[in-house]
Known about the structure:
This protein is of the alpha/beta class. The strands form 6 sheets. Strands 3-4-7-8-9-10-11-12 form an 8-stranded parallel barrel, surrounded by 6 helices. A 7-stranded antiparallel beta sheet has the order 2-15-19-20-25-22-23, with helices on one face. Strands 16-1-21-24 form a 4-stranded mixed beta sheet, with no helix packed on it. It has 10 helices and 25 strands. The protein has 2 domains: about 1-10 and about 385-495, Golgi alpha-mannosidase II (Immunoglobulin-like, Sandwich); about 20-380, Alpha-Beta Barrel (TIM Barrel), CATH 3.20.20. Alpha-L-arabinofuranose binds next to loops.
Amino acid sequence: MKKSKLTISKDYKIAKIDNRIYGSFIEHLGRAVYGGIYEPGHPEADENGFRKDVISLIKNIDVPVVRYPGGNFVSGYNWEDGVGPVENRPRRLELAWSTTEPNTFGTNEFMKWCKEANTAPMMAVNLGTRGPDDARNLLEYCNIEKGSYYSDLRRSHGVEKPHNIKLWCLGNEMDGDWQMGHKTAVEYGRIANETAKIMKYMDPSVELVLCGSSNSYMKTFGDYEKTALEMSYDKVDYISLHQYFNNSDNDSKNFLAKSMELEEYIKTVICICDFIKGKRHTKHEINLSVDEWNVWYHSHGAKFDRWSEAPHILEDVYNFEDALLVGLILIAMLRHSDRVKVACLAQLVNVIAPIMTENGGKAWAQTIYWPYMHASKYGRGYALNGVLETTKHDTKGFSDVTDIDSIAVWNDEGEELTVFAVNRDFEEDNILSVNLKDFDGYKPVEQIVLEGFDIKAENTVNNGSVKPLSKPLDNVYESVKEIKLSPLSWNVIRFKK
Ligand code: AHR
């Protein structure tokens, strides 16, 4: 049995967590929209065609923001195709994913769905095949009340009030040569700056996300961020990071250390932002939007018919170790919540997603749904930089990997304190002593765990056995609380005043 110690104080604040760190993503890709959130005729569909069973699973997580409509899709998207009378909307060949896009769901449907799902939009503009002109037109359509061409067009489409979308992405993964309209850092920096300028002329209240690298292994990583930011620094508010993780070589010990890779990535991007800030002697600070992250590899190589509509693509079936890594990534992002203000688990339904559906059938929670739900539910308030003393190990790709990783979140309004912890040791229990320095009167109430499953155990439509269990913590504790963390476990330890 191993031992660890976590010391927490209200004084150890990292930041007030921006709830948008629990965001997600819906792209026009595979069955994310069609057969996922939208399926007219489904027994659970409401009068808009929105699946109520899916909405209820989403509401249970409490997703504050959803990025839309892509992803690679947005770089070839004509937003006008998705508004106005449905019978007039064109069917298009969708070149990012080699499918056919029926356009029966578009901007106004998405905005209506956001209301139903109790979430806010994070809208991406197409800076691939299109540019600043289309971005400003879409913004006018969405955010201007009336009296201009596009605002009146929206009203003629039956949407009287503006959508008032606050958060916008300036394109998607423009550094990647697979991207339609891929751009060098200089080409992108220029167009992003001009688009940002025009969008802020139209609506100064919008917040804009500049594309960073598609992942930290891109050859241009670092330089792309620096160049694009140097050309647009004053006009943008966030820079994006995307990272997907895999266990293709089936080295689970190494896989569970990969949250460290994301942390290095985050630290490097913060340095780049602050380097430019320092050079410019400006007060303006750029924050981070990790607007695509997840495990993604199980579905690689899946076959589908080219130009089919809503095929089964990127439908990763997640296992227990994936859920542990998702928990570790959430902990890593919370540790940097002073700068990571937005993050999107990619994606939300069917496509590399915590929620799966059958066309015409059931909806269910994948393994990764649970840590995501716990973090969103209990991880609101102040992230605390606790002092963690724990044993360590090495893996193939990482040194000094802590056996326990952990973060504490203090919800001052609800007088609740939650410790999220993962024991990534394969064999041994770890007894975590939680030393609450100045949390007088806080008592442990519950330990929620995901533990005891085969590392490759999955949930399927009729078997949701990988799910959390709540253990009461009703022992009498003094100032030091000792909590057993089982080998390979995700733990949510809740204290209440
Ligand atoms: O989320 C799936 C895809 O991954 C997105 O379309 C793209 O932005 C990224 O490469």
